[in-house]
Each structure stands twice: as structure tokens, then as C-alpha cells.
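User
New here, help please:
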Amino acid sequence: MEPAVLEARGLTYAYPGRDVLAGVSLRIAPDERVGLVGPNGAGKSTLLLLLAGALAPVGGELLLDGRPVDATRLDDLRRRVGLVFQLADDMLFTTSVEDDVAFGPRHLGLPPDEVERRVGEALAAVGALPLRGRVPHQLSAGERRAVALAAVLAMRPDVVLLDEPTSDLDPRGRRALVALLRGLGRPLLVASHDLELVLALCTRVLVIDGGRLVADGEPARVLGDEPLMLAHGLERPHSLAPHAPPGDHRHLGGAPLPP
């Protein structure tokens, strides 16, 4: 088995009065793009925050390159695991695209020429170099999403986590994002209700429900398991559902309309 870049063992977490995660274990290998799916309230976003070091688990442990992450390695975890929030606007808070992407590298104390290099490389990687001097709130949803991803890439993380990355994109923007993420060349964990995105992008999928992982496997096999999907508040993706031949209206539960 290939060594994991990032691994969780028995993670538990609770908000006041509510358990959220109950012993979640997972591993992400260097060549994987992993989907994370489940109903609302299943624990997807909380799990991403734990993996990125934004929350501290109540129990269990995280491992980076096979070594446990303790208090002395939290900064290393936060630098090497990048999280793209569901709302891109939560990551864009300055008056220019350039400054938003430069914020992280500057916070690391990097020299100006290295910050400049990273900003240019990150914006070029997401096809947003022409947006460098623009005001973030004047960008389209797809452009803001690209800039938010560039802000994470400028930190040069080893793993990228994305929370609902297509939630505000039109079909063209969604296709562009899939192509972009496929070409990043680094491991991904993508939490999404967009099961077609998971099919198009991911090499593996995890299903979470009630704070527990209930399935782990190849996307078409797992997402095509209709009883599994229905049992956990999901639906089999349309592209995996059997299609009735032209003129066959049995899937509508009735006879064809008269001419």
C-alpha cells in the first residue's frame, strides 16, 4: 500500500450538545483525488476543518507523512494542507486579487521576490493571471473560485481540501474547474453534494453519514449502489442510472400520452 500523505485515525469531534464525528479514519495517498459525500449534517465540513488544523479533534490523531501531528507540528500541518472554503468570498478580503493571493506567503515572512513569484505561478496555474489587478468583489463566481484556489496554491500545500467547490458555478465554470483540478498534480479531498463532479474528478470516494464513514471505494461502484445511496440520504447520479429507450414511458409510472 502506498504511504499516505495525510491520514486520520479515529477522529472524534463534538459541538456543544451534539456529536459530529465518531471515530473517522481515512488516508490520502500522493496520487489520489478523493471525493467525500454525504447528507447535510453528516460531518463533511467539520472533517475538512480538522484535517486542515483549523479545529482540534476531541479524540483520535492526524498523521502527516506517517508521523503524528502534535502541538509542535500544527503550523506544519496548516502550511502543507490547504483548504478552499465553500464560499470563496470568505477567503477574499483585500482590495485586489494580487494582495489576496499574496496574503499567505507574506504571512510566512517570505522575501518580496518570492512572494511575487508565488503569486504569479498560482494565478497562472488557475488561469487567472489577467485578473491580478482586479477588485475581488467585481469578479464572477467562477473567477472568485479560481482566485480562492490560487490563494491556497500560493502556499504550496502538499494536499488540497475543497468544500463544495461547484456550489456557485454554472455548467461552463464547473467544467473548467474539473479540468483545472485534474491538472493540479497533487492529492485532493473534495467534499461535495455534486455527485457528477465526484464521478468526473475523483479516483476514490468516501461516504459519510452520522459522523461515520460508511463506504469507501471506486466512485462508479459506490455511487452506483442505489440501496447504499438511498440509505444515506443520497441518490444515484443520473449518469449511472439506467435510461429507458425512446418511447418507453415506464420510468414515469404511466402510459405514453396519446398523439
Notes: The chain has a mean pLDDT of 89. The first helix runs from residue 44 to 51. Strands lie at 6-15, 18-28, 33-37, 59-64, 67-68, 81-84, 159-163, 188-191, 204-209, 212-217.
